[in-house]
Amino acid sequence: MERLQKVIAHAGIASRRKAEELITEGKVKVNGQVVRELGIKVSSHDSIEVEGVKIEKEEKVYYLLYKPRGVISAVSDDRGRKTVLDLFPQVEQRIFPVGRLDFDTSGVLLLTNDGEFANQMTHPRYKIDKTYVAKVKGLPRREDLKKLERGIELEDGKTSPAKVKVLSSDKQQNKSIIALTIHEGKNRQVKRMFEAIGCPVQKLKREQFAFLGLHGLNAGESRELTAHEVKQLRVLSETGKIG
Question: How many structural domains compose the chain?
């Protein structure tokens, strides 16, 4: 279920704000009935008309992108920078990124036009694991790693417990490579967690999203998720287990 104004916006009829105006002005019908409430939610089975024109529902699509560094995780950018949508010129559906990766972070990023699916993949309550590999400055002590595992107190709240594994460390260069698995998505969370233990991130890559990795892809390349993978992700969000 998605909010009506969001469905209208995704259909390309109007911006979300304009869609809200159309609803309050009584210009939107759901299943033949005029709707003026902004909070109403609709499903894929509902018939929606805007100013007498029925919304044609897009086929749902799901993609896995190996996001390169130097690309914005957004549908547009007012500064003219390259966005992830520029990597999908052949896709006709109005897709958008599921969550985001920072401009200078690479790795697994999902894109879709399915808002309900996107919410299942990103809301903390569904606890979908994401694994990052970070090259950091410094050699964290065991007690620092324990802090990450227990949860770090950040300015916007304490992080949930994380899984941490030191992949390598170089005493001469004073650098470490560490894998960190979390299920949240606070702004710049991974970088802030490492900063909190005195080990600033120098390079960051998201290696896995749930059970999905980057096998067979180069930076900038993508592939469609299979129907089975989409189903597995839905089951994982609902049950905590892969179906």
Answer: 3
